[in-house]
Amino acid sequence: xxxxxxxxxxxxxxxxxxxxxxxxxxxxxxxxxxxxxxxxxxxxxxxxxxxxxxxxxxxxxxxxxxxxxxxxxxxxxxxxxxxxxxxxxxxxxxxxxxxxxxxxxxxxxxxxxxxxxxxxxxxxxxxxxxxxxxxxxxxxxxxxxxxxxxxxxxxxxxxxxxxxxxxxxxxxxxxxxxxxxxxxxxxxxxxxxxxxxxxxxxxxxxxxxxxxxxxxxxxxxxxxxxxxxxxxxxxxxxxxxxxxxxxxxxxxxxxxxxxxxxxxxxxxxxxxxxxxxxxxxxxxxxxxxxxxxxxxxxxxxxxxxxxxxxxxxxxxxxxxxxxxxxxxxxxxxxxxxxxxxxxxxxxxxxxxxxxxxxxxxxxxxxxxxxxxxxxxxxxxxxxxxxxxxxxxxxxxxxxx
Length: 400
What we know:
The chain is an alpha+beta fold.
């Protein structure tokens, strides 16, 4: 049975985004690197709510507490639910042909039901209930140009490139690719038979252990990253959130052009080299990638930067423009980066592990957490990862 990772009051800012990222964006606005509109958009806040949050942050800065400041919990939505009669009337007015305006709806609520509200509240209700009337004339959407981060580790662009990478093999394999937005440093690239959850859970911790933890990953709306349930994480999103890494979603493929151009680079570079060296399997291809990656970062000048990514990386460190964090010595690390499922202990006191059933130290009919590691090892835990507790391993089934 798959797990759903939920956060209480997920719509609150502190539940949606890690605190280090919130502080970083506010600090960037304070340094005039981000406009108020850009910072508010990154935080998914209205401008009034952003300015209120920014005022709190400035007070913390004045008291010398900028590094420990955290936004408080708002306490949730205290707006009472609208009467059923008001909802029914709005549905009737907004679905009419032509639909009534928001101002007219507010006026009719007052006239017919003595229910006082304003047009803005009606508009919010209509949007929440997917009853916002369509407009006759629409302005074509403008291309999205995302702002450029300054700091190393503030944003890593992450994507997968399915391609026939191996010579004489028409099947497509998946290249997982990770690029630092500020320095264009290619922090990771690895081939897998297919894009799976276990592939992501193997690839990302490799990059984090090699370079540190970024503040955010810039991804698309793939089901590995995005869920339509507003108060839930995917398993991969929950693993990233556990270590304070946010997911930022690109509205279009063009918005993450840096990683798309990196895919194009590898598609032109890697297959010919694999064919020339007669490398026909993934293990040999990944060994070649491990050699190519540092060479590209250290020796090839990036056209937009005018320098190598390695030089840009070192310059960011010298200028103290880095927000990378070291990987913590956390006992949950191998279990967070695993595929997790709830499993019920059978009446015989056993749980399924591959093709066999093994005895576990847990009462029959209780639920335990089955963790499948990318290397094939299986662990059974007492409870889900929790930073305030230590993992309790009930059973370990290693791969032989």
